[in-house]
């Protein structure tokens, strides 16, 4: 993947160590964030789920000098315990956590939410997409000194009804609520918890949504900036929230979508 979009190297994250969960490939938002953090001096550990993802992630991790790449099923407490035990043994403490994990059955992302959603798959989507942030955050917080920061990735489907999002939209709404309650609980310890609501981008996640390409083009056409959501913008937002620049910001859902989320009716440029 070309790195021309990465911000100039700096020292904002020098001496900080953190875990990035949910990189799927070199187009992942989580990977874009990891690249930016590494460019600013951060030391990063990664998790993956399954052999297929391990083959993709290890070379990426090596490219940013990562020495810790661990298997983790985010719905498995034993896996989570093993990951954070390893981080405690290797590093002693943690400065930041990036959570970019979500799942919903593809069959339940289209058609009628009421008719197609099953109890089993609804609970699984909530577990992996929302509770996994709580579970990982609980463990990460125990390794953080004052000033630790956590970021998760959400989407506008948590706030508004979007076609072919259904169960995932409900799970993302729960994730955003989890962010606020985690921020409340961890705030007295000096730990910050925020979410980034990124616009539609060409990722594996959007590829799994029927009409995903349409969401990307609509996002560009309706946005107030008339442009695609950029990886630079998302990674820059994460850098702000995870670095000391983000001090005093917590419990927020920050939209990075070229202003798409503020539009009620698109401006067609027609006369009144």
UniProtKB/TrEMBL annotation:
Keywords: Fatty acid biosynthesis, Fatty acid metabolism, Lipid biosynthesis, Lipid metabolism, NAD, Oxidoreductase. Belongs to the short-chain dehydrogenases/reductases (SDR) family. FabI subfamily. It comes from the Bacteria. Pathway: Lipid metabolism; fatty acid biosynthesis. The lineage of its organism: Bacteria, Pseudomonadati, Pseudomonadota, Alphaproteobacteria, Caulobacterales. Substrate binds at residue 104. NAD(+) binds at residues 22, 28-29, 49, 101, 172. Its EC number is 1.3.1.9. It catalyses: a 2,3-saturated acyl-[ACP] + NAD(+) = a (2E)-enoyl-[ACP] + NADH + H(+). The active site is at 155 (proton acceptor), 165 (proton acceptor). It comes from Terricaulis silvestris. The keyword Lipid metabolism applies. This is Enoyl-[acyl-carrier-protein] reductase [NADH]. One of its GO terms (biological process) is fatty acid biosynthetic process. Pfam families: adh_short_C2 (PF13561). One of its GO terms (molecular function) is enoyl-[acyl-carrier-protein] reductase (NADH) activity.
């Amino acid at each position: 993947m070309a790195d021309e979009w990465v911000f100039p190297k700096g020292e904002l994250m020098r001496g900080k160590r953190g875990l990035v969960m949910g990189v799927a490939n070199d187009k992942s938002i989580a990977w874009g964030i990891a690249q930016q953090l590494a460019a600013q001096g951060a030391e990063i550990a990664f998790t993956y789920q399954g052999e297929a993802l391990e083959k993709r992630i290890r070379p990426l991790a090596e490219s940013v000098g990562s020495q810790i790449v661990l298997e983790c099923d985010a719905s498995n407490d034993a896996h989570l315990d093993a990951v954070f035990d390893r981080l405690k043994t290797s590093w002693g403490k943690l400065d930041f956590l990036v959570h970019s994990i979500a799942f919903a059955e593809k069959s339940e992302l289209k058609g009628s939410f009421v008719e197609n959603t099953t109890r089993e798959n609804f609970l699984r989507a909530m577990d992996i997409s929302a509770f996994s942030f709580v579970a990982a955050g609980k463990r990460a917080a125990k390794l953080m000194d004052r000033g630790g920061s956590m970021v998760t990735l959400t989407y506008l489907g948590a706030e508004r009804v979007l076609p072919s999002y259904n169960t995932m939209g409900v799970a993302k709404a729960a994730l955003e609520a989890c962010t606020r309650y985690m921020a409340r609980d961890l705030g007295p310890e000096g730990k910050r918890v925020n979410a980034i609501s990124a616009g539609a981008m060409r990722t594996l996640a959007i590829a799994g949504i029927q009409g995903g390409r349409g969401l990307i083009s609509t996002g560009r056409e309706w946005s107030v900036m008339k442009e695609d959501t950029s990886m630079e913008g998302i990674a820059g937002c994460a850098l702000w929230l995870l670095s000391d620049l983000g001090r005093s910001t917590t419990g927020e859902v920050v939209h990075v979508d070229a202003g798409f989320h503020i539009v009620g009716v698109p401006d067609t440029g027609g006369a009144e």
